Amino acid sequence: MLMCRDLARIASDYIDGELGPMDTVSVKMHLMMCGHCRTFIGNLRASVDLINAHSSQQLDEELVRRIDERVTESLNARNSGNGNSD
């Protein structure tokens, strides 16, 4: 039987539709019996919807590329400075 703490741990995956069929059934059965978790899932869904509604701005791919390059350069400099080859 799925416990409330277990549901809280996988709630985002449930909302995103990323659980397998057995886990999804377990969550739905738990939600049928637990009003607190129904409220929790409802609030989490509302939060996700609110964030999605206000995050329509597109990523600047060039900025992401430059950040990635700087992180790589920094990691390479750190690794070469302490003798690691990783």
Considering the chains and any ligands shown, give keywords for the structure.
Arc Repressor Mutant, subunit A; 4 helices; Anti_sigma_zinc_sf
Strand and helix layout:
Layout (H helix, E strand, L loop, with lengths): L3 H12 L5 H13 L1 H19 L7 H21 L5
Structure characterization notes:
The chain is mainly alpha-helical. The protein has one domain: Arc Repressor Mutant, subunit A. The protein is built from four helices and no strands. The model has no long low-confidence stretch (mean pLDDT 85).
Question: What's the short story on this structure?
Answer:
The chain has 86 residues and is mostly helical. 76% of the residues lie in helices and 0% in strands. The chain is elongated, with a radius of gyration of 21 Å.
The residue-averaged pLDDT reads 85
- Just give the CATH class: Mainly Alpha
Written as H for each helix and E for each strand, in order along the chain, the element string is HHHH
CATH architecture: Orthogonal Bundle
Which value, in Å, is the CA radius of gyration?
A: 21 Å
| End-to-end Cα distance | 44 Å
**Annotation, overall tally of beta strands:** 0
The structural class is mainly alpha
Shape: elongated
The major β-sheet equals: none
Report the total helices: 4
Looking at the structure, the CATH topology is Arc Repressor Mutant, subunit A
Extract low-pLDDT stretches.
none
- Helical proportion? over 70%
Pfam families: zf-HC2
InterPro entries: Anti_sigma_zinc_sf (IPR041916), Znf_put (IPR027383)
Organism: Marinobacter vulgaris
Protein name: Transcriptional regulator
